[in-house]
């Protein structure tokens, strides 16, 4: 309860937009998409891009508790909430158990208790000021304690003069909040595809040069200096090969698992690794992406017991598994449509922008936003009708329970006299004369999909896209009913739906 109230008050009003960790509707993919788009812009403009990837030492264990309370005070929180959080953080003890023996209790002087519901939110508060005063010339991505700052320019000298003050500012913020960076694990990458002679940037942390490397691992994805994804795909193939060993052990025709079980194991252990960030590294050359197809084809042959010469098309049809190319396109479209409902998300602007600068130069690699529009040219016009996902205006502590009357379910629809059902229905209506009654219905046929609501004798109907399902109709009902009530200024409502599953029960 306390965590829900705290999140409602601080997110997104106080939490920086650069933070994507422990936030609803955000993920590591958002940061990778943002970074990939920035790097592709630098390649397009023939600029140098420098990224500094920081490593925080023992972030959770060394979090300054006083900084959390101080941050809440700066944001204007007073009363019982800061007191409850202070009580939660203070007087924490721990014991160590070895071979059944417990040590004496020790007081936990620093850090946030791990495993609690409040821990993630409090850590976001503690690390929020780490990226303060960075400015607009240098961008940053923050996921929990993984921080990356990056800037672009025509010359390395220009970038160094711009980046070093930002690095110093991050170090100053870290010192104020109690975090420390690992000098040996903090890396710098010079992203560039120019063939002319140039030197690597020279940036410092406390008078110590930051090592410049050819590739770095960030949020589970390996980024190389030319963004060819060669290192990431080669590492991914090695991981998938190791995971396929389990499938090989279970695919015996005498004692092994059945086909359905083997395919589930493949999807869980191998395909999940390939899917992660697949539409981000989808800008790699087709020859490199084909190497992943070989992994899937080999896995399907093991699962199905097919011959080595079996065509890959037949394997996908028999196993009911989508080819990786189509799967990448599907996941990409899902991501774009999901972000279309979050117009306040910072990736919204980079996904739905003018792409003529890339279409005029077909030889350069394109960012995710351009590839999405190449796959589905009408995507921008079709997603305009997506219902936006906004923060609830009613705080969680004022939510009223929704009462669902299921008494009509006691009657069999086909074995009960309709007059009896109607009499029971009228009896329910008679006790709710002061409610605004809204009737809903929808239909999906071969000709199309549509839904309608009836309120106070007025009819409202909508034609939905043919690909919509029953859940889309339900969403349209509820959304239309809420919009009507907001326009009329009414609150007490009786909403009739056609089946129990539409209530969410």
UniProtKB/TrEMBL annotation:
Biological processes per GO annotation: DNA biosynthetic process
UniProt xrefs under PROSITE patterns: RT_POL
Matches recorded under Pfam families: RVT_1 (PF00078)
Source superkingdom: Eukaryota
Domain Reverse transcriptase: 1-223
SUPFAM superfamilies: DNA/RNA polymerases (SSF56672)
Cross-referenced InterPro entries: DNA/RNA_pol_sf, Rev_trsase/Diguanyl_cyclase, RT_dom
PANTHER family: ENDONUCLEASE_EXONUCLEASE_PHOSPHATASE DOMAIN-CONTAINING PROTEIN-RELATED (PTHR33481:SF1), REVERSE TRANSCRIPTASE (PTHR33481)
Record's protein name: Reverse transcriptase domain-containing protein
Naturally occurring in which organism (per UniProt): Photinus pyralis (Common eastern firefly)
Lineage: Eukaryota, Metazoa, Ecdysozoa, Arthropoda, Hexapoda
